[in-house]
Amino acid sequence: MWQKMLLPVFLGQRVPPETLASTLAELDRCLQLLEDKFLKDQDFLSGPHISVADLVAITELMHPVSAGCDIFKNRPKLAAWRKRVEAAVGEDLFQEAHAVIMKAKDLPPADTAMKERLKPLAQLLLQ
Amino acid sequence: MGLQLYLDLLSQPCRAVYIFAKKNGIPFELRTVDLLKGQHYSDDFAQVNPLRKVPALKDGDFTLAESVAILLYLTRKYETPDHWYPQDLQARARVDEYLAWQHTALRTSCTRTMWQKMLLPVFLGQRVPPETLASTLAELDRCLQLLEDKFLKDQDFLSGPHISVADLVAITELMHPVSAGCDIFKNRPKLAAWRKRVEAAVGEDLFQEAHAVIMKAKDLPPADTAMKERLKPLAQLLLQ
């Protein structure tokens, strides 16, 4: 989220392409584990019913989605799970919870004070 | 076949699981997974834990990863004394809170300290820039302060008057930098007193036994070329 969107767009800070590539590779690795180790052939992460695990996971995955990373595109299994989770939660509530993050890309650029304050965090997230 | 615990006592979370199982007299078969030899990458072990990490549990056909999940599974299955994971709503929430926080806070800084202060230079013969180590020790210090101020406060143990799984997870974590030669308890009398209480509650013998491997880590012979190659990606990660 930070390397693809918040750092360049909000903080006006360049992210080296190899850093972003490395991060996306790690994200991909985690998504594969999510599918293979946790979801497997089940409807939800811990079995046939939605649990808090699914809520924690889906809200996590919406983060890169809001940054413009369509992580569900080549992952039909995860995409199907996402639909089930959204249906179980209810579309309205799901949209409501994600309204802020989905508009993050439209945030006006940070002012100098905000840039200063976020500098240490930005450094950390660039490693 | 009974309960099997896949552990390497070099690892902090493995020590917590080991101490918990032994202290509560839980019968288990110890299956050692030698991390330095890369045994956690074997296909056999992947059957037990596809995440390729220790600790891992196998109970009949049921396999489980993640130390916190394993500890809580054991408290439930073996109905261990209440204080380990109290039924009381708020007391339990305090244990949960610590268990959730520690992964990305104390665990991270203790692991980095161990590697940057000892394993990288001594075992892998790799230079660690002084400013990197200084930054890691500063972060460790920050976490220790939070441990004292937010979690321990004026209590005897992390979640209240009695020892819980939170204390096991924390103490095994803190022994990591200690074994690397960082005496983190030296200027922290509150934490030092808590450590004594935890060791007494666990039992000195069991505590020493669980930490025998890590306390000897500084005497490990330098890694051979094959091991250095295998550990290279991890070393890179832990040098950032």
Description:
Chain B: It is found in: Cytoplasm. Chain B: One of its GO terms (biological process) is glutathione metabolic process. Chain B: Homodimer. Chain B: It is an enzyme of class 2 (transferase). The complex is a heterodimer of chains A (127) and B (240). By secondary structure, chain A is mainly α. Chain A is built from 6 helices and no strands. Chain A has helices at 2-10, 17-39, 52-66, 76-89, 91-102, 112-125. Chain A starts with a helix and ends with a helix. The mean pLDDT of chain A is 93. Chain B has 240 residues and is an alpha+beta fold. Helices cover 58% and strands 7% of the residues of chain B. Chain B contains 10 helices and 4 strands. Chain B has helices at 12-23, 43-48, 67-77, 89-102, 106-123, 130-152, 165-179, 189-202, 204-215, 225-238, and strands spanning 3-7, 29-32, 56-59, 62-65. In chain B, α1 (12-23) packs across α7 (165-179). The mean pLDDT of chain B is 95.
